[in-house]
Amino acid sequence: MARIVGFQGLPGAYSELAILQYFGKKAALRFKPLPAFETVFTELTKGRITDALLPVENSLAGTIHENFDHLARFPVQIAGEAILRIQHCLLIPPGTRAADVTTVISHPQALAQCAHYLRERGLTPQNFFDTAGAAEHLGQHKPPHTAAIASLQAAKLYGLKVMARDIADRGENYTRFLHIQKSTKKPDKKPLKVGRMMSLILLHSGEGFARIGPLCGILQSLGIELVHCEARPTKDAAWTYFYFLEVAAGPGHPAWDLALKTLASMTRTLKVLGSYASQR
């Protein structure tokens, strides 16, 4: 049975490229492009798709905060991680002269990753919901003096010319994606046999909740490395947060159970969102 894999954007989006890289081009997959990150989570929890790949962090532009908020809100679990090298192209419709371009449309993350390139050339960035969506819009409507930032695949799909390649502000431009599935009642607790195991732990702050410094000290004392920490407001009370702790450990670590028990005693809610082999 084919997996139905959802992603935010249109065909040619980087998320689609990440899916092909992660699952393999020969995998039995059906793709479901969706208009917004929240829609992807909704479709997943309603069972209309079986899997999703969602970006959570870029090496140049930083964290995609919205997807961390959705991880806290929706009943999902993390099954894996994918790292995709992002190679942005500046695209124009056939017949458009490069010298006439004044405006560039793309997803805010892509514009942020190419900010220096655009400033140097006096080009005005304009937000669009998706890189591939910007390419499709440009190919269909051909707004004057406008280019788009998207993938080479998007250029081929939407009949655009490549004005410039690899325009990100730094050559090493990578986006990290998480493979998301609907939560199950009995998540797999078996240790992974290959790769460096990572786990993403969700903590909910509340009255008397220990600050992040003591939490880091506890993990360090148990021989567990904290790799990444993200704090997001809970929106249910002032100055309360969801903490996402990504640690280099999992069910196979000798101090794993003790670490979870200790953290649980310091927070209102503790949930392991998933354990997975790191691609970094």
Key traits:
single chain, 280 residues, alpha/beta, D-Maltodextrin-Binding Protein, domain 2, Alpha-Beta Plaits, 6-stranded mixed beta sheet, 5-stranded mixed beta sheet, 9 helices, 15 strands, 34% strand
Can you offer a commentary on this structure?
The protein is an alpha/beta fold and 280 residues long. It has helices spanning 14-23, 37-45, 65-73, 108-113, 115-120, 131-141, 152-157, 212-221, 256-264; strands at 3-8, 29-34, 51-58, 62-63, 76-85, 89-92, 103-106, 124-127, 146-150, 161-165, 174-182, 197-204, 226-233, 241-247, 269-277. The strands form three sheets. Strands 1, 2, 3, 4, 5 and 11 form a six-stranded mixed β-sheet that branches. The chain has a five-stranded mixed β-sheet with strand order 8-7-9-6-10. The protein has a four-stranded antiparallel β-sheet with strand order 13-14-12-15, with helices on both faces. The longest helix has 11 residues, at 131-141. The relative contact order is 0.17.
